[in-house]
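=== Structure Prediction Worksheet ===
Name of assembly: unnamed complex
Input type: mixed (protein and possibly other molecules)
Chain count: two
Listed entries:
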Amino acid sequence: MKLPARRTSHGVKGAPYTFLIPATLLFLLFFALPIGYAVWLSFRKVRVSGLGLGAGAREEVWAGLENYTGALSDSELLNGALRVLGYGCIVVPVMLGLALLFALMLDSEKVRLAPFTRLAIFLPYAVPGVVAALLWGFLYLPDVSPFYFVLDRLGLPQPDLLDGGPLYLALSNIAVWGGTGFNMIVIYTALRAIPAEVYEAAKLDGATPLQTALRIKIPMVAPSLVLTFFFSIIATLQVFSEPTTLKPLTNSVATTWSPLMKVYQDAFGKGDIHAAAAQATLIALATLVLSFGFLRAANRRNKQEAAR
Amino acid sequence: MSSPALRKAEPPAGTARETALGPGRRRRIAMVPTVTLLLGALYCLLPVAWVVIASTKSGAELFSTFTFWPGTGFADNLSDLNAYRDGVYWRWMGNSALYAVLGALLSTCVSAFSGYALAVYRFRGRETLFNVLLAGVLMPPVILAIPQYLLLAQADLTDSYLSVLLPQILSPYGVYLARIYAAAAVPADVVEAGRMDGAGEWRIFSRVALPMMVPGLVTVFLFQFVAIWNNFLLPYIMLSDDEKFPITLGLHTLLEQGANTPALYTLVITGAFLAVFPLVALFLVVQRFWSLDLLSGAVKS
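=== Predicted Assembly ===
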């Protein structure tokens, strides 16, 4: 040891903090500061005196909870939340169901073409949400779509996929298409980590592949399912680019279709930053409550399972 | 059938699952899984196949011929796209590449520093710092993006390249992945041995630990590259000058104009095809060097 011990230990003590400086600075500047600023804005409002002309006619004043009560009684925001709820009820179960199904199939014995199909199903992950919405948008357009072409030739009725109830399916399909592959990889990785002895034991017990899947594989990948569920809920609450992209193709996607679109509309369309900040804070709170509530419930279940 | 009961059973001699099967039975193809996966692949490839074919059609063919029949207009579409507003399309592609490459590089560096520090050192506030960084994942982007816009406006940085680049450098998921890789790939004794040899902490990191973390960091880079390339919301909020648009925003505005003039549809479709192409190609090339498993944070130790 050439170096005096004191200097070395001093260097070691300071080192982790030095390594963490860039991340901490960026976090403070681009995460903490904006969040704090948004919360601050949500408690403020613009008071216009007189006709709103001249210096001092518009001033920012404390608003208390006014923006929040406004947001909570805003029917557009509520309707947007309900739409996203309906959309999420389709996307999350279908996407994770398919991801689990494909992961189990990939993991089964004697399956052919597994590397090819694995890559093909993962491929949409590389396609930007905007481009995915654009591709499917054209496939939903009666003039361009192959599906309508086939329906037309067969003399079958041609539903309008970009209106009413089918619009939910159309939008959900884009999310399912884009997200299944990523979730499949997460679940598949967890399946590969199950020790081989477990399967051998199941085989000795005479378990069929279906029984093995239901009673061993699925319970053992439960933590991955919880994780993918968690990320899917967050992504669903934040849906923005897909409906925004479909908007030019149909009249039935409103500028306030999802809560985030409503926030964007209020902030940049109407220029009411304060109302937008209050709505954004409410959405962030809802996200936190939902995700932590879900994680706690999942944890409690895991503990019960472990205790059994 | 509970798992404790299973563990009591005698482990087989071979560890690979196939070894216990009879050699004759291995050749049989499992029809149900294979067909299910092929259907899944078909579903995932269909829109991509469609856009490849649709980009070869002229404007008239797009609305008149069967959609999966190639057309004759690819060269025309390409030159139309080239000519559109003096080739602004290629400018968008260039911008996307710039945002994604530079952003992902910086992001990987920051993730590597943080992940290494969080995995290797024991220090006060370690878990708190990690959890606070991770909580960033939960923040809806629009909630960040609006105040980010207002703050950057105060600094006179909105509508600049920096306004899209800077907010995307710190990636909570990247830090999380880097921490897992560092914990798995950098043994504590190696770091300790470096210290015994009198190497400084930075030297140990850059000469010893960093090379060990490379496979994981490639994953972080690709993950961030895709995330930035695919990002729409942040540039949508930050930028108004379409010379600085990334490809996602460019295609979106093109589609918005195309809704009024269907003649632009062929441009949008050709543009979408060319925008999908680089990332798909990138994936096919790097999949040799890149294990998909790493994306889920799974590390073989």
